[in-house]
Amino acid sequence: MFLLSSAVIASMMYILGNFQSFMEETQLFILSMIQTVSIVGFVVSLYYLAFLVYWIFRRKRVPFQRLFSALFAIVINILLSAGSLLIQDLSTGLG
User: Fold this and answer.
1) What residue intervals traverse the membrane (predicted)?
2) Which residues, 6 or more positions from 81, have their beta carbon under 8 angstroms from its beta carbon?
């Protein structure tokens, strides 16, 4: 959840930077930071989900809140990473 929070805070910094007219290099740095943190968060969340599935089969109990939070983190990290990559490509003229 720390990495997800970091990615969301960095996204807020990017949005705030649009209104505050940050320099283009700073905005691109924030986008690359969002993408990196989101990818690492995705990998960690996927690892947690795999461990959770192993735990479910071993204990025969399903912790729905943990399962939901892992899936939520995976989806949000994918969306943040894809969104930052799309914005970065569009801003550099590759899209």
Assistant:
1) 27-55, 67-87
2) 34, 35, 38, 39, 42
6-57 pLDDT, tens digit each? 888 888 888 787 777 778 888 888 888 989 999 999 999 999 999 999 999 9
Question: What is the number of structural domains in the chain?
Answer: 1
> Identity (one letter) of the amino acid at 49?
L
Structural domain harbouring 12: 1-93
Distance of alpha carbon 14 from the chain centroid: 14
**CA distance linking residue 37 with residue 34, whole number of Å:** 5
pTM exceeds cut of 0.90: no
Read off the tokens for 51: 């461990």
